[in-house]
Amino acid sequence: MRKMLGLAVLFTLLLSGLYLIPHYTEGAGDSFSSSILVNWNSTGSHQRRPVILTRGMDDLFVIYQDYFYTNWDISMARSTDCGYTWSEKIQVDDSRRDLNSSNDFSNQMYPTAVFAPNGTLYVAYSDDQEIYIGVHYYHVYVVWSEDYVNFSTHRRVDTSIRDAIYPSLAVGEDGTLYLTWLDKREGGKFHVYFARSEDGGVTWIGEKRVNSGGLSVDQYGPRIAVYGEKVFIVWSDQREGDFSIFMAVSYDRGDTFLPERRVNDDLEPYSYDRGDTFLPERRVNDDLEPYSQNDPDLAVYT
Hints:
By secondary structure, the protein is an all-beta fold. It is built from one helix and 18 strands.
C-alpha cells in the first residue's frame, strides 16, 4: 500500500505560479514521483496559496487561489487515487457559480480549510466584494460542503468596516469552528482577531481582538490550533524592533485570552506550564545564509 508520508510538506507551488504539483513517495523520502498537474486548465493563468487536506489514504483535496478569469477565485481539485489523477476544477466561493465572469467584480484570496468530525469540509477566505464609502474592503467569509462538489452560500465572519484578511481555521472535537484573522478596524494597523461558530458556520460569536500589545505596529501571519477547550494563536510582529513570534492562549474556547507572550525569548520555545512561562527558544531553521524566515505554523499533538 502506498505510504503518503509527509505529503502536506512535500506539496509545492512552482515559481511560475502556473502549476500546483504534489510529490509523493513510496517509502521514507528516498525517491519521489514525477510531477502531476493538479489544477484544471491552467494555461495563461495563475494559481497560488495551495492548501492540502486528506480524507484517508487515497482521498486528497487541494484548495487554491485561482486567477483563471478576471479576478482571484477560490477553487478546489480532488483526487481519489492518491494523487495520480485529479478532478476538474470545483468552484468553492459563490461569486461566479454560473461561471459568468461579468457577474464577478471581486477577489477571493487567502484560503484556509478544515474537515469537521462529521466530514463536512469548511473553507474560509477573504473577499473584497463589499464597498464602504466607495472603497472595496476585504472581509472573511466561510463556505462548506458535505458532498465536496456543491458549496453553501457564503457566511461573513467579521464585523469590521476595514480590511479583514489572512484567515486561519481550526475545528474542535465537537465540531466547533475557530477562526483567527488580521483586521484593520483599529487605528489603521492589522491586529489579530478571533471568533468561533457553534452551529456549523452559520453564525459567529465571541469576536474580539486577541493581541493586547503591539497596537502601534502590524501583526502578520496568524495561525490557530485547538485542543479541547484550549485555543492557541501565534503570529509575528515588530513591537520590539525585529520580527518576533507571539502566542496567546485561551482556556475557555476563546471567551478570554491571556496576554500574549513572546515565544522566541532566548533559545528554546517550550512551555511546560500551559504557557505561564517559556524556556529559552531554540533556533529551528538550519540555514546560515542571510535569508528571512516568517509565517510560522503551529500544531498540537492530541
